[in-house]
Write a sequence for this structure.
């Protein structure tokens, strides 16, 4: 298992009693954020339940590799993300769960040839949208892009923390976020047009 | 005021980093000095801010069901109990 290789216990840092204390004080306060992350990744309550349980059981099993007082939330998110990737890779054989067109479009765009900025999405339109509409746009993103937006905007991690959670350089975090947000704005714009919200594009059509 | 930005993608990345609180000191300084002089950058800032705020404030935050918390605690307790049994059994085998 990739995760188990990553968090090998080196020394027995805690007694049995201390393990429970660390688990309760450092890990359990993050369970709602963990569940929310799992749900946003899987878009399925049962999968999110399994993922959170699996993550917390692994965290307890490898608790000696966690140093008390360090960033428990980032440590737990890293375990959850790795568990999701391992599970997701198995499930990715199901074509209905992946929008391959999106993946192809976004991954084929390189650093030098980034997608055009979406300038015709209006600030007011985004402000007028309701939660479900915004969540639908987020859920429709490819998982790697969804992940960076959740970590940054919903969970408030810094780029440095995200780099550690995702095991990628900070420069890649920045680029991936940039591309994710461009795609998100495209999704929001498409959704806004379909729902009859005003966009700059719609306005210019009306003027003609 | 500039009506066209020659570095729109680069500026957008910098504006995002500023909004995310992860920009370098030089980027923050550059942002403060140049932001008000470029209309596309001002528009970009407003839009990026509204998208970020929509993600933070409008997407429902799901809470973990209590049953999952109970399950996790039970499994951890059981795991310890199980390891305890194995330990006792090994000790007994050695003793016998």
């Amino acid at each position: 298992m990739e995760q188990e290789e990553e968090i090998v216990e080196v020394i027995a840092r805690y007694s049995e009693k201390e393990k429970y204390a660390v688990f309760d004080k450092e890990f359990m306060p993050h369970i709602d954020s963990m569940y929310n992350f799992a749900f946003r990744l899987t878009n399925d309550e049962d999968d999110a339940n399994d993922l959170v349980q699996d993550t917390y059981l692994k965290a307890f099993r490898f608790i000696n590799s966690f140093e008390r007082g360090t960033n428990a939330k980032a440590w737990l998110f890293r375990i959850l993300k790795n568990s999701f990737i391992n599970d997701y890779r198995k499930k990715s054989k199901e074509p209905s769960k992946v929008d391959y067109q999106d993946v192809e479009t976004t991954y084929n765009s390189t650093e030098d040839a980034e997608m055009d900025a979406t300038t015709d999405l209006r600030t007011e339109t985004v402000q007028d949208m309701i939660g479900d509409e915004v969540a639908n746009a987020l859920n429709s993103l490819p998982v790697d892009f969804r992940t960076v937006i959740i970590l940054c905007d919903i969970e408030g991690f810094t780029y440095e923390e995200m780099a550690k959670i995702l095991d990628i350089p900070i420069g890649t975090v920045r680029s991936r976020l940039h591309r994710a947000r461009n795609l998100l704005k495209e999704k929001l714009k498409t959704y806004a047009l379909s729902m009859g919200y005003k966009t700059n594009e719609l306005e210019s059509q009306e003027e003609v | 005021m500039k009506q066209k930005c020659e570095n729109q993608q680069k500026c957008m990345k910098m504006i995002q980093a500023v909004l995310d609180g992860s920009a370098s000191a030089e980027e923050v300084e550059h942002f403060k000095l140049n932001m008000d002089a470029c209309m596309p950058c001002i528009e970009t800032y407003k839009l990026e801010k509204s998208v970020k705020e929509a993600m933070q404030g409008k997407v429902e935050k799901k809470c973990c069901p209590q049953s999952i918390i109970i399950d996790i605690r039970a499994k951890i307790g059981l795991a310890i109990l199980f390891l305890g049994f194995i330990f006792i059994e090994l000790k007994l085998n050695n003793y016998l």
